[in-house]
Specification:
The protein has 21 helices and four strands. The strands form two sheets. The protein has a two-stranded antiparallel ribbon with strand order 1-2. A two-stranded antiparallel sheet has the order 3-4. The chain is globular, with a radius of gyration of 25 Å.
């Protein structure tokens, strides 16, 4: 019911000697909304109109809504989201096999597709990833090494300039960086191809090489598996770039013992296998991710392309609230075709789990995670005697603005997978301080925390691991841009969620892309296949 009409109804009832009560007028409205909704709401046209007409399948968008949204996206410079050109199929086919093959893990028990599972929205649906030594997929996975972070989806990674929620895989004029450090020797970067239409091909290829040398993700731990010959490369006295090179060479030996892989590499690169290195594998995985996980046919894309009937009125209202700087102003961070400025912001996220999974850790007990600032000071922090004091307080707890395309398929939400429902994550921005203070971890499944690392996490389950660092997060500060974001009304949340769901491409739905999973891989190891 429109609030102004509701006021008229109360006046009428009073004049007739009737008592309807305030509740007759608070349908989908809280008390604060009753107090503040007046002239401003009328100025905002139909921002609070009923959405019942969305139940009608006929095309009847309100012209003013369509015009408003088209004007806003013109201001934002949003144009049809172009997909990258096709990449030669031999390279994509090789990358597909490598992505799903557990041969690229020390213990032969984990693949890229274990955590980035097609049937689970290219994530694992867990708050924190479950890595080496586990079995099963998603919430059914047991015994895997608990990760320090939430698995990020791979939808449209071709448009990202840096990767990971803390931007730890980036580049400078000298090449790809990991944690702000030159960890990949030039000869392993030489095979990286500049794929047309891809924002940072070399970053994507470099990132594809990192999990295989990361203990928790795919490498495994010393003493865990006697058949993991790659552990011979692990030596604390060896510089990391050389240690990683040794491990990557070991993977190439494994792959070279499989005739089908030799044929696939040679077909992809038209060169003898013995002249190739693991950079060629990373390049192939990147090619597969670009070819398989790029989508641009959501209802939103159809609207941007000119179809006025592509969005419901509720979705149009959500889009207007999202983009309008005088309304929600969500696009101050979630900008552009990918709905991210690719920058880092303090948005007040809770911390739980076992801390970051680096040899050096944040917080008094090693259970904290300072985010993007670790990349800035990684050299002196990791290799020097300094501790947390090296990180300026005001630079802590910054995380990359999340891309929003196909977000409907990628629960749980937030940098840590800390919010179970999309509506609740949107509502976080109504009052981020209060949301942090009152955060309830029991909204998440109480997954077990298995730790094979020397750290030996003190917690056994997720629910008991919520870190009492609220004061530290608040002291570091909140991004000033959040002061300009407004989701103060329940209806704003509902409209924004409706809009966010319009960013879902039907062909990107988990049940659809799961059909592209290979039935087998050249190593003969089992392929991890998830299910909704």
């Amino acid at each position: 019911m429109n609030f102004n009409n509701c006021q008229r109804l109360l006046v009428f009832a009073a004049s007739a000697g009737l008592s309807l009560g305030v509740s007759a007028c608070v349908e989908d409205t809280d008390d604060s909304e009753l107090e503040t909704s007046s002239v401003d709401d009328r100025a905002h046209d139909d921002d609070d109109d009923d959405d019942d007409d969305d139940d009608d399948n006929s095309c009847k968008p309100k012209k003013k809504l369509v015009d408003d949204v088209r004007a806003l996206i013109a201001e934002q410079g949003i144009t049809p989201f172009e997909q990258p050109p096709a990449i030669r199929p031999e390279l994509v086919t090789l990358g597909r096999a490598l992505f799903h093959d557990k041969i690229l893990s020390g213990n032969r028990d984990t693949s890229c597709g274990t955590c980035h599972n097609a049937a689970l929205g290219l994530t694992d649906r867990r708050p924190l990833f479950s890595g080496v030594a586990g079995h099963g997929v998603g919430l059914d996975r047991e015994g895997g090494q608990v990760g320090g972070r939430h698995t990020q989806t791979l939808y449209n990674v071709h448009a990202l300039e840096r990767l990971a929620i803390d931007g730890k895989v980036d580049q400078d004029e000298n090449g790809v960086l990991g944690l702000g450090l030159p960890l990949i020797l030039p000869e392993y970067q030489a095979p990286f191809e500049d794929f047309p239409g891809v924002a940072a091909s070399n970053v994507l290829a470099g990132q594809a090489m990192v999990p295989e040398v990361t203990f928790a993700e795919q490498l495994g731990f010393p003493g865990q598996d006697p058949n993991n010959e790659l552990m011979a490369c692990v030596d604390p006295q060896t510089p990391l770039p050389l240690m990683f090179a040794c491990i990557w060479d070991g993977y190439m030996v494994r792959l070279g013992a499989i005739p089908e892989y030799v044929e696939m590499f040679e077909a992809a690169y038209d060169a003898p296998y013995e002249t190739l290195n693991f950079g060629h594998a990373g390049n192939a995985i990147a090619a597969y991710e670009v070819a398989a996980f790029s989508f641009n046919n959501s209802p939103w894309d159809q609207f941007v392309a000119g179809d006025d009937c592509a969005l419901t009125n509720k979705q149009l209202r959500g889009a207007r609230h999202f983009f309008d700087a005088e309304r929600g102003n969500c696009a101050s961070c979630h900008s552009g075709n990918l709905f991210t400025d690719q920058q880092f912001h303090q948005t007040l996220s809770p911390q739980f789990g076992c801390g970051n999974d680096l040899p050096k850790r944040n917080g008094a007990d090693g259970l904290d995670d300072f985010g993007q600032t670790r990349n800035v000071y990684a050299g002196p922090w990791i290799f020097g005697p300094t501790g947390d004091e090296i990180f300026p307080v005001e630079e802590r707890y910054k995380w990359r603005t999340a891309p929003l395309r196909n977000i409907e398929f990628t629960a749980p939400y937030g940098r840590h997978g800390h919010t179970a429902e999309l509506a609740d994550f949107v509502a976080h921005y109504r009052d981020p301080v209060e949301a942090l203070i009152s955060y309830d971890i029991t909204q998440l499944p109480d997954t077990s925390l298995t730790d094979y690392s020397p750290f030996q996490c003190e917690h056994d389950s997720l629910h008991e691991s919520l870190l009492d660092n609220t004061d530290a997060v608040l002291t570091a500060g909140i991004d000033p841009l959040l002061d300009e974001v407004d989701v103060s009304k329940h209806k704003h949340v509902k409209q924004l969620v409706a809009f966010l769901k319009s960013l879902s491409d039907p062909s990107a739905a988990p049940e659809v892309i799961a059909q592209s999973l290979p039935a087998s891989v050249p190593s003969g190891l089992p392929v991890d296949v998830g299910s909704e």
